[in-house]
Structure formats: C-alpha cells, structure tokens
C-alpha cells in the first residue's frame, strides 16, 4: 500500500471516528510518563535523558518488529490515525468559536484552556480568539503535519516516536526550576524532530494562503519567537491569514512579553474558521504533493 493511500486512510479515520475517547494510547503514555517521573525525577540532564529513552525506545522497537508482520499495513494506518489530532483540533477550536458567537465568554475561556498552556480565566474575547488561532497554527504542525512527515520518512515507528517525544516535551519541556534540566532531553529531541516538519508546515501555510505576507513574516519574525520551530510556523500562518498574533500573555501567573507575529488586524471570531480552513488547504496540498511524488517515482 502506498504511503499516500495510508495517509489518506488515516485522515479519513480521524475525520470519521475522531479522537479515541477511551483508552487513547497517548493518554496512557502520559500516565506512564507521570509514573516514571515520580521515581526518576532529579535536577539532572542525564536522568532526564535516561527517562526519555526508557519511555520511548521499547514502544518504537515494538513498532519496528510489528512492521515485519503480515498485518503491517493495518498497523501503519492505525498508528498514524492515533498520532493525528486533526479532528480534535477542529472540534476544540469550533467549540470556542461557537461559544464566542453565543456571547458565552466564560465557556470560551474554559474551552480554550484545554488547548493552550497560558492562563485563560481573565482573557478578553479578542485574546481568546487569538489564543485559539495560535493553537490551531502551532498544533497543525505538532498534531498533523509533523506526524505525517515522520510517517512518510520512517513509517509507523517514525510517527509513533515523533508523537511520544512531542508528548514528553509538552509535559516536561518547560524552563522552570523543576524541568529546566530534567526536561532538557525531551525539549531538545522534540526541537530536532520538528526542525524540518515545522519549516515544511510554514512553507505550506504560505502556499495555501497569502504567500508574500507569510514569507515576509516568517523571515522577519520567526526567529524572534521563544520556540525555534513554533516561531516559523506561527509567523507564516499569521502572515498567510494577514492577522496579528503574539504579544503579551500570562503563563502560570507570570506575564510574558512575546513578539508580535503576522501583519494586519487583530483576529475576529470568524478568523478561527479561516485558520481551520488554512489547515484543510494545507492538508490537501500535502496529499497532492505526495500523489505527484509517488507518480513521478513510479515513472522514473
């Protein structure tokens, strides 16, 4: 089965079934990571690195072994489906937009709080909208295009490894007293795995929207963001949509002055739908490129 068909099948499963509500493997992995942290945590890069390897290597090796079985095609599709978060991202952002249209700001704050790590209790309508769009753009890479990239490169083991590392980074990749050293390996490994996918996602956002603005914002603003991979993705996405994102935000009770991203007006409620539309156009672009690539390889 071609990689393109496997990706398309996984996307269709995600659109049809959505995220597994019970016994999702990534949720289970998160609980396992919490258990490991309880016994292995120390202010040490070495122990943090050991914890990362201990958590990700057995599952990755198991996936490699399963690739030699007769049902490897079904396993590939299932693993990629579980690694994808397209339907979940679309559903969460859609719920924020629905509550904002109903003037339910408290409900919108609660909903966006499930998508972002910043404090949401006192966000204005514009700030809720902005946080939602930022999450859509960044997680478009983390939960969709990064997983697809590593699936194309290394099959189901690649997609699984990527999402496990991404999960550990989301849990441990903070620059604070508890995780600055222990979470160092998870954060750096996630940066490495995301380096190429993030830039392909940024380029795709540009091609799927306003190319000139997206490329200019990526060039001028991407490197100023605290994350070397989220910066290009969000700057290109904001430029493609011709919106202004970034700026100050409160995390764990502390105000952070973040750079501005993009160009144009502050986002309105319906710009959430535009951001989701950008994700859909980018997915279509990737599928077209994969189809064209396989066709060319087959005719060489």
TrEMBL record:
<keyword id="KW-1003">Cell membrane</keyword>
<keyword id="KW-0169">Cobalamin biosynthesis</keyword>
<keyword id="KW-0812">Transmembrane</keyword>
<keyword id="KW-0472">Membrane</keyword>
<comment type="function">
    <text>Converts cobyric acid to cobinamide by the addition of aminopropanol on the F carboxylic group.</text>
</comment>
<dbReference type="GO" id="GO:0015420">
    <property type="term" value="F:ABC-type vitamin B12 transporter activity"/>
</dbReference>
<dbReference type="InterPro" id="IPR004485">
    <property type="entry name" value="Cobalamin_biosynth_CobD/CbiB"/>
</dbReference>
<comment type="similarity">
    <text>Belongs to the CobD/CbiB family.</text>
</comment>
<feature type="transmembrane region" description="Helical">
    <location>
        <begin position="44"/>
        <end position="66"/>
    </location>
</feature>
<comment type="pathway">
    <text>Cofactor biosynthesis; adenosylcobalamin biosynthesis.</text>
</comment>
<protein>
    <recommendedName>
        <fullName>Cobalamin biosynthesis protein CobD</fullName>
    </recommendedName>
</protein>
<dbReference type="GO" id="GO:0005886">
    <property type="term" value="C:plasma membrane"/>
</dbReference>
<feature type="transmembrane region" description="Helical">
    <location>
        <begin position="282"/>
        <end position="298"/>
    </location>
</feature>
<keyword id="KW-1133">Transmembrane helix</keyword>
<dbReference type="GO" id="GO:0009236">
    <property type="term" value="P:cobalamin biosynthetic process"/>
</dbReference>
<dbReference type="Pfam" id="PF03186">
    <property type="entry name" value="CobD_Cbib"/>
</dbReference>
<feature type="transmembrane region" description="Helical">
    <location>
        <begin position="143"/>
        <end position="165"/>
    </location>
</feature>
<dbReference type="GO" id="GO:0048472">
    <property type="term" value="F:threonine-phosphate decarboxylase activity"/>
</dbReference>
